[in-house]
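Request: When convenient, would you put together a sequence paired with its structure tokens?
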Amino acid sequence: MCGIAGLYYFSEKNSLLNSTAITEALKHRGPDYQNNFKFKNCVLFHARLSVLDLSTKSNQPFLNENNTKALCYNGEIFNYKTLSAALSELKTNGDAEVLFKLFETERLNCLNKLNGFFAFSFYDSLSDEFTLVRDRYGVKPLYYYSDKNKLAFASELKPLMQLIEPQEINANALYSYLRLNYCSGKETIFKNVYRLLPGQCLQIKNKQISIVNWYEIPKTDSTAKTISELLSDAVKIRLNADVPVGSFLSGGLDSSIISALAKQHHNDIHTFSLGFADEPFFDETHYAELVAKHIQSEHYVFKLKNNDLLENINPFLNSIDEPFADSSAFNVYVLSKYTKQYVKVALSGDGADELFMGYNKHKAEFLSGNFFYNTILPLVSPLLNLLPQSRNSGFSNKSRQLKRFSDAVGLNPEERYKNWACVSDSQEVKQLLHLHYTKNTFANLFTESFSQNNFNPVNYADLKIVLADDMLVKADRMSMQHGLEIRNPFLDYRVVEFALNLPMEQKISKAGQKLILKENFKHLLPPEIFNRPKKGFELPLWKWLNKELKNNIEEKWLSKKIIEEQQFFNYGAVQKLKEELFSNNPGDSPAKVWALIVFQNWYNNFNTFIKK
């Protein structure tokens, strides 16, 4: 796991670069070693987190003997030992050399052989061909920018912006961010800066850029193997490392299954969970401890107190590379910080909710075909407005969920999904956003998923939007801030393809959700884990915003003076959100205010890169 960046020049003229600044911007992703290599019209930067083959021979950029070809690579190839059997004269024991040799000889044809996650560049100075590749599902990030003189790329925005001129804020992407609480799709928060999408490859040949999809999810027969076989092997190969490996264990079904399987393959597995000592409603560590005792793992519980927020909040906010307001990122940030004290790699349950219909919105979509829910409930919807709605207790959260359900159940499937996926609706953002924007960027995110015919559109949209741009961004950015690698067995391509091709009734029915997981892994875990209600990795955001962070909201982030000087947002709409936040019936206002806070802090950190 690493950080990468670089420039390809369409002419042979090198511009002056602040190599130190670029290296520093990458260093948190690869604290073990940093280096760069310059060709006459290409320069590559690498920051290494050493996990496989800890020797200097696997340092990068990885070059051939005469320094004419170079690989700059972020990721892990879990089947590299199998692939290496067909290669000769290997000088290292790691996966970087294996990937280099495969790509050198086979180019894009080798990619479907790879089981892992990756984002990499490959430059061949003899043919002057340059390639960028991103893994199947977007586990590893890759941003790029191009103009008539150059193409720049990087794992994150900050090192990329060190390579190019200041760019304007992308109002269309800001609109999408305020709807979803994260940036999604090809466009980024900066105009002219883009994400290479999952499963894509960018090539430069004869000074011309082309982008192709090297991977598409295939239609397959899901009866050839069982989920037990596939997931067990996915966990097994992800335990291979030359450094200590552990497992996140929240006490939810997904991380519990992964931890139990890891224990089968690695007897002394360590497990890690995060809880809230002062907030019992948000603390689920008793479930994690129950699982740890059952599987007999060596378990570590990190209990946050409200005072710990003040210690971590500024470093956390300053670590956000592109506006990202999924507040549970704070939990992953702190969990990664403490876990890194014990291991360098951690397994996680990321991906299971998206693949096996585990979210509340999946249950809502299933119930939308029920007469009571789609006919009777909307009739009593006005009464729900009389009930308290927030995420701060079981009752108020249930009334909040019922209200969201009743507001959307009568819409067509695409609009219904969009409603349940979003934090703010279009009217709220229209009142809030002062900049001129179009909704095309946002609308296009959903059109592809609901216009394809191969897979269930909700499953497909979750994979392309929620997983790629929310869950995996959260896991990658927050863990890599502390030099911790997260591995996701549910995102082994064999598991994903199996799950996407499953009949829906094996995932969700009147009997519940994630049915195939519960049936196949019930023997591994205590029954309480299968009977517990669904709860996300949430934090007591409303209380923190009303207490510990209130002064910062009023004086620092969302003051009238700052909002009116920036001219991004209408202060009247901001003030209305603050009033709702500070009331006893906050609804979803904490998440909406949090999005503004994150943006304000990000804007201050990236101010020098923004073209005014």
